[in-house]
Write a structure and sequence with these properties.
Elements (H helix, E strand, L loop, with lengths): L10 H9 L4 H13 L2 H11 L1 H26 L10
Amino acid sequence: MAQAGPLYGAFPVTYLLWKKGASIRNIFIYIGAFCTIKIPMIAFEIGFLGLKFSILRTVLTLPLIILIGIIMERYLKNRKFEIREN
């Protein structure tokens, strides 16, 4: 949540997570959380849409991100991925 920046800023961290052996589920959870739950974004959201909306969106989004990570892990579990280093 503390990271700021566009989505392509998450890809180097995601690559390192993959190389260190993180599960596909955790990688998808990280990318989903990076895209939707950032402290700077929540601060702007509270200013424009209100605290109640921001808390509700965050509370509803987090379980969905985890669910998507679990679904993607089950869908991709038998696939072999290669890491190409140039």
